[in-house]
Design a protein that fits this description.
Elements (H helix, E strand, L loop, with lengths): L1 H8 L1 H40 L1
Length: 51
């Protein structure tokens, strides 16, 4: 419990939380971005194959 109170009450703890949240958010963004690009490429290849 003491660790959680230090994590949320000290400046370095808040910076750690912000860094962790940023990294998780960046990971989610890149996963979505890469999957979207892979899907677009697959659709483009399928359209080329139909022509």
């Amino acid at each position: 419990m003491r660790l959680l109170s230090e994590l949320f009450s000290t400046d370095s703890g808040r910076a750690s939380i912000a860094g962790i949240a940023f990294m998780i958010g960046m990971g989610v963004f890149f996963i979505r971005y890469f999957f979207r690009k892979m899907e677009e490429e697959t659709l483009a290849e399928q359209q080329k194959a139909k022509k």
